[in-house]
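Can't paste images in this forum, so I'm doing it all in text. The chain is below; anyone willing to post the predicted structure tokens underneath?
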Amino acid sequence: MPRDWPETFPDPSLVPRLQQMVWGKATTQCLFVAAKLGIADLLAEGPRTVDFLAAKTETNAEALYRVLRLLASHEVFEERETRQFGLTPMAELLQADAPCSFRDYAIVHGSEWYNRAWAHLLYSVERNEPAFDLACGQSLFAYMEQHPEAATDFNNSMTALSRFEAAGVCVAYDFSGYSTVVDVGGGHGRLLTEILAAYPALDGILYDQPSVVDAARPGLASSPIGARCQIAGGDFFESVPAGGDAYLLKHIIHDWDDERSVTILRNCREAMNDEGRVLVVEGVMPPGNEPSNSKLWDVVMLALTSGGRERTAEEYAELYAQAGLTLTRVVPTHAVVSIVEGRAA
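Text version of the structure:
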């Protein structure tokens, strides 16, 4: 006869949920393996057996099957006939040539060098210092400078994320009232390119470290928006290009503490015209216990950066005030991030 669940034991539904969280790293690594091996690309023409996939990737078929079976349980791939896998909408995001490919993003987050920091998160909590620095002996940005392969993977992953976020920004925000958008810390110009393509009357300035924008020059020069996009190199802690009426900062402010964030914002305020706007594109932390990617990103910033963090709308308003700006509105997008708009105070 069945017995009642012991009253002293926890709700039995809680344990599997907690296990999923504890073992989240296993899912991350399985995504890394599938992305690194290019499994989604091998399935582009239809479902394939795991033996075929293992032969193509020079891996063990039984081990590969176990990895793909787990991913299929998360709707990444689908097991169809016996030991045969096919694509799902989620799996298509891991294809290298997908319009919004997250293959490089998955590769970086499963890479050995990137994951070293997470074993030392307690160090960050105890000292409020980046675990990455302890694990790798230098800051994230210094590590990139000395490890070109890691830097390439990291930049590619950010470009992949930018494709998704750029679409969200262009849909959510109307740039038609501006004449010149300055993309501060704009990397290789993915977001600025999307905005200029959507608004043919708009001019742009891509601004980042000289080595970064130099790498972007060939692609931008040959693109349809090349004639409308200037390129400038420099240090946004010192100054930013003058004359713009919209200053765009995507995933810049969350890298820095309040003092350095205010410096960047103040430089934008001093450079823009009187009717200009500062547009910070970041996750905005919701109140209470609401689940949010911003809360995940906030802990990523804790582990990887010195002082970086995600912020609430109220905290952005305070930063803006210190920089001589007034927060006017927060515009949500379909791409998780929001556009935090500010004008001259």
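The beta strands are 48-49, 78-79, 84-86, 180-184, 203-208, 229-233, 246-250, 277-282, 325-332, 338-344. The chain has a mean pLDDT of 93.
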